Amino acid sequence: MTKYVYVFNEGNASMRNLLGGKGANLAEMTGLGLPVPRGFTVTTEACTRYYADAEKIASDIEDEIFATFAKTEAIVGKKFGDPSNPFLVSVRSGSRASMPGMMDTILNLGLNDSVVEGLAKLTENERFAYDSYRRFITMFSDVVMEVEKKKFDAILDAVKEEKKVHFDTDLTADDLKEIVKRFKALYLREKGEEFPQDPRVQLIESIEAVFRSWNNERAIAYRRMNDIPGDWGTAVNVQEMVYGNMGNTSGTGVAFTRNPATGENKLYGEFLMNAQGEDVVAGIRTPQTIDELNKVMPEVYEQFRMIAEKLENHYKDMQDMEFTIERGKLFMLQTRNGKRTAAAAMKIAVDLVSEGMLTKKDALMKIDPKQLDALLHPTFIQKDLKSATVIAKGLPASPGAAAGRIYFDAADAEKAVNERGEKVILVRLETSPEDIVGMDVSQGILTGRGGMTSHAAVVARGMGKCCVSGCSEVVIDEDKKIMKDKFGKVYNEGDWLSLDGSTGNVYGEAINTQDAELTGDFGTIMEWADEFRTLKIRANADSPKDAAVALSLGAEGIGLCRTEHMFFEADRIFAFRQMIVAKDAEARKKALDKILPIQREDFVGIFTEMKGHPVTIRLLDPPLHEFLPKEEDDIAELAKELGISSEELTSKIEMLHELNPMMGHRGCRLAVSYPEIAVMQTRAIIEAALAVNKNGGSVIPEIMIPLVCDIKELKFVKKLIVDTADSVIADSGVGLKYMVGTMIEIPRAALTADEIAKDAEFFSFGTNDLTQMTYGLSRDDAGRILDDYYRAKIFESDPTAKLDQIGVGKLMKIAVEGGKETRPDIKLGICGEHGGDPASIDFCHRIGLSYVSCSPFRVPIARLAAAQSAISNI
Amino acid sequence: MTKYVYVFNEGNASMRNLLGGKGANLAEMTGLGLPVPRGFTVTTEACTRYYADAEKIASDIEDEIFATFAKTEAIVGKKFGDPSNPFLVSVRSGSRASMPGMMDTILNLGLNDSVVEGLAKLTENERFAYDSYRRFITMFSDVVMEVEKKKFDAILDAVKEEKKVHFDTDLTADDLKEIVKRFKALYLREKGEEFPQDPRVQLIESIEAVFRSWNNERAIAYRRMNDIPGDWGTAVNVQEMVYGNMGNTSGTGVAFTRNPATGENKLYGEFLMNAQGEDVVAGIRTPQTIDELNKVMPEVYEQFRMIAEKLENHYKDMQDMEFTIERGKLFMLQTRNGKRTAAAAMKIAVDLVSEGMLTKKDALMKIDPKQLDALLHPTFIQKDLKSATVIAKGLPASPGAAAGRIYFDAADAEKAVNERGEKVILVRLETSPEDIVGMDVSQGILTGRGGMTSHAAVVARGMGKCCVSGCSEVVIDEDKKIMKDKFGKVYNEGDWLSLDGSTGNVYGEAINTQDAELTGDFGTIMEWADEFRTLKIRANADSPKDAAVALSLGAEGIGLCRTEHMFFEADRIFAFRQMIVAKDAEARKKALDKILPIQREDFVGIFTEMKGHPVTIRLLDPPLHEFLPKEEDDIAELAKELGISSEELTSKIEMLHELNPMMGHRGCRLAVSYPEIAVMQTRAIIEAALAVNKNGGSVIPEIMIPLVCDIKELKFVKKLIVDTADSVIADSGVGLKYMVGTMIEIPRAALTADEIAKDAEFFSFGTNDLTQMTYGLSRDDAGRILDDYYRAKIFESDPTAKLDQIGVGKLMKIAVEGGKETRPDIKLGICGEHGGDPASIDFCHRIGLSYVSCSPFRVPIARLAAAQSAISNI
Question: CA-to-CA distance for B714 and B706, rounded, in angstroms?
């Protein structure tokens, strides 16, 4: 029979999945002999049962709860509902991972009209007893019975007004009795029944409320953002109350074993005497720093200091602890690995190794790779941020902080930067490839539509630039060049805005930012990571600038150099459009001839920057209509420039129109229809490599063919490449090695990888497209569908946003096996957005890829994640 | 070392892949001791080598050809290029499958200026020798050197004019010498060199020409239409010449062992005395029927009759033979299994069994299932067809023949049929679901755009209705209601047109048709097929009418009943549109309430018709925007009817717009967003089943959820269905069994089929969508891409049109294995277009599906194909 309830001394820290983080650590501390109030944990499995049993605690579990409760009563020698010696408890949620969205705490449970009297007598403190009772009524009503807290606060305020007192602490016992009376009346009005007097009912209702809170909207949203599965469930901790508000020898506090902001090895925290936890949070009285406890109660301080040391040594990590002092006696209420800033995380990890507490491997495993993001991007100066108002919230699409004047058009943004030297935020409904240059000159990008994988988001992450996407709380009118925030305030072109790409917050003013600063500890951690990882890390980079950033952050090559962005630059977009509207291969070739030297220079720049590290260049991928304007005016203008009629251009654009462009004329299909393009690109790549090598370089270009679905298609395009490359090389009179490989981004390519590998020297998984096709879900259209799916609890997060290890992963495994079977030394990489995601990197490591490629600014994250994978998969 | 050349007596009929059909049969006849002129075959592998070696016959193969040639010379005792005893040969192509698109024959090879003199002396017939030479020059120049035949014909005509003679046969030896002179001069002019005099050069050039002809446009087109792989290559047969034109004891003819039109067991054919094969084809003299040979040369006739009998007995099939009589001696030049009409195929198969020559199994294997199409659809009356002109050619999208007055609008077509009783052909640029009713009342459908899997094609096949699609040779102006044919002639509304859906031919007049007639032999064959097959055959049917047709053709159930077509009918489209524009679930429900009784009647009709056979009903699948108008006028009109503003409706339509609708908001995603729709449909299905069962029926409805990609999605929609169904059943007070299953049409569903099977009682492979997503290729957009791919020889046919057994097939296998692992008794079917394709049916049989479902009119084809699968996969 499953055991659903564990007394603290039955558990330990390794039982986190069953007991939740809080429960497991309370059990562990109990086991260590630390002063922990008695109690027990109702397991996460009980929560799962609760949902399986149609949101009801089954009678067998209820029986087990009360049986364990009775045991605990016997140990502490108090009794539930016994006015002469009442047992009062707290009820707290506690899941595997910390979950701020969930219900937290109910204190003083067990109080009722007669117990409160008993408590008053026992403590000889009527005021304390009724204060506890009114707090309990508020908490229980609010979090369990959904009677809003503000209604109780209104009563409290009314009584304070009547009594003409300012602080809660000035209320007398009688005042509090009156408040309890009014609270109970409010409860009766709201719920149509008396406030529950039976402590057993209070307990079961509270536990159910914790279980319910697992699925409240905030919790679901939090889980979605943090990749926490919905079926984990939460545990519930029931624990004897101890009171920090029993007079001047009582108190409560929180402390970290090290400074969570800097990592400094010094006890850090604060406490408040004669207070309960919620008073600390309320901020009415200013807490004292933990050092001062040494003056107030030196023995207690010393005991706490030793416990802190013991805990840190025990957990081998910085601890975040809660404690209460009840009439001079110290109780530990919680310990956990403390949250810390990225910089602190680096320092603590390095320090713990030099202190001999951790090995390098262990230290690496303690750092959350995602946290490194904060080290790599500008952040707001905290004191400036404090006074700023959030005027809207969008998706945290690309991390970092930015402030600038807003422009609604890429060209306007460019002008503002280049001509007037302004700092700029580009505001668009959504971005398209035409906006690339405008995005590049901006501090940050704000879009009204599009998700975490929209064009704006993907490109911004590639640029390491702050981006808030899909911000539907603002109304953007691109034509009128105005924007309205969620309060209805209007912002005009040139007005200031600040964006936080790590939270999605938008501020209606300029907030000062500070640049990222990489400390020596960061370098040490990266060095250690490189020591252990076996996966190579490359970056996705389309320009010498990106390449330089990537190299400086430790990239070992470029895994994806997209060539389409290049065509949008001013010096070639016109020639490229001439190519598109060309009537025959001849005219197409003529236009391409103009692009060739410019494109060659692109590659010379990148190859030079990369100093012989491998560079994988993908041939043109997007459908050609993406390069043509959509608006009537723009079409007319372009037609004029091209020297053709508007009708002709319009009809060309219509001809290029596709019902499902995602599955249309793009990728290598372009090279089949217009071999001239692939030939020109190959020539540019090979000539660039030859030129760089002539000056002492050692480039071995890797030419990548996108969107292959059949071996014959690969053979055809490969032949174009090889014929061109070999003839250019032969003409040059010197030798050059190069490789030809393919993206695996269509399910059929993965399924027939054994065949494909006959002609592909390397595979690079394009998991963005592969995911969309495997799910049959276009990420451009997923928006509204996803909302319905979240509501129906079918999806917990956008399935295209992270690597689906089950379905897409199965295809990848098939491809890896097939590829290696045919060509044992095949190079295998991933260049989708997922290449920078730690969980996906771990998956890539496990299925045996050679490298991952990600945005330059995610390279350090990937290095650490790869090291963690290598360590944990030995 | 590979052997590339086989003398006829080294081969046999089983070596068809290597020697080609013609070569293998010549070898077999040689082995049977029949009178076959000596010769040898250059293998298909030599052809493959030719292409691998950059279109050049390698020297080792050339050596082998001449070595074998020398052996043959020794046997026949003649010598290549020896005027005193010249060896003359024919060179013929011969691939595995008959390929009318390829080069056929060069006769008299070996002749040159001196050999022709020798031949004249040897035969004592100068006229014959020069006639042979001028024929050889023409053929060699035309098919090998690409000098057009008409230029030679012009010379021939000129000489005839000069000599004032009417028939070639009236030309004297001197005339022919003059012609040869002029022919050679023409050749020199055209090619800049003398006509080749070296027989060895003639031979090698001719063999290369045959190899080249394997990849000419006609051959490629033929292969595409007949699913013949491009890498088979062709063999070349080099054979001693025999002459049917050596006087009145010589002749040539073709004959079948049975009547190829009716199947009657009687020698059938024709011959011409003193003639070569091409004279028979030229049709200048009228050939005599084969019976008459008995009068002309009774001994030769008797010898031929016995050979025919021997060959039929040997091959156990009706033979199609070519023969030549040279100065009284009979030579067999070819035998092969004869092509026959569908009716003849049935009769011959049944007769061969009753004659004891074949077992039932063997007989079934002899019939090409695709041929049955002709038996099931109307055909033109042949004599009426003969005088008709093809005014355009499109794709043979749905077989059958039809004549009718043209209308350019579904509503006009309906009116013409319903009000004026006209026979109608619907002509559209392309059809959409709104045209369904108009298509249904028409005799046939002609579209200007769209391929074999376009809406028009798919729906027409489902209706068993003639359709020619993608006919770009006509210019259709739907607004002006006119059409222009390829000659520029204009057709107005109401003009007559005839369509042949089996060939794609369009005729500009009314041609009489005759209805399909199913003979007793057809029934016998179907009975035999049912005896052996293990696959069940179901039909895709959306109406009681379709269901009745399906049953009558032997369907054992409905594998796919699409519900979307139902919504387009006049009595509900309005309510359905109200549902789409509804502002909330409440309004949506109200609209759906109106549809419920009508939808219930749909199902009552189908269940009643199907008499307890299983019926799989798919819930609504297409995106909702398909149900709304696209044109401004129509939008305005509908807005008025709906009582909302045009702007509101337009904005609703825009909101529903998707970038990639194929991967957008459709299938079960609709049921997640609008559960009311699935609930209404379930209620209609269950209530209908209850109603029919109350009247003695035994319906067990199978409810199918489309477009599932994740088990949780399936669970969600299944719960809607089960909750609704169970409550309707409970209310009815009687029991009802029903099943809930899913389409497997998204790659991820196939990849996670083991999970999906936990909640799906059956799978039905939707291979249309599965193929598109597996290839990342939208069939709506594939048109232009495919042309480029055919040209580049990457694809030989539309990969979405037939089941890709390699890629898509791999996914299907994964799904079958996963499904059976979880649920060993899971029902597995296929309901994509491929369910009616013999090769795909064989694949379905082999991977262990339970049934295939296809258009009603393809059910007999599927029954036969399934039997053939069962027989050949024992």
Answer: 9
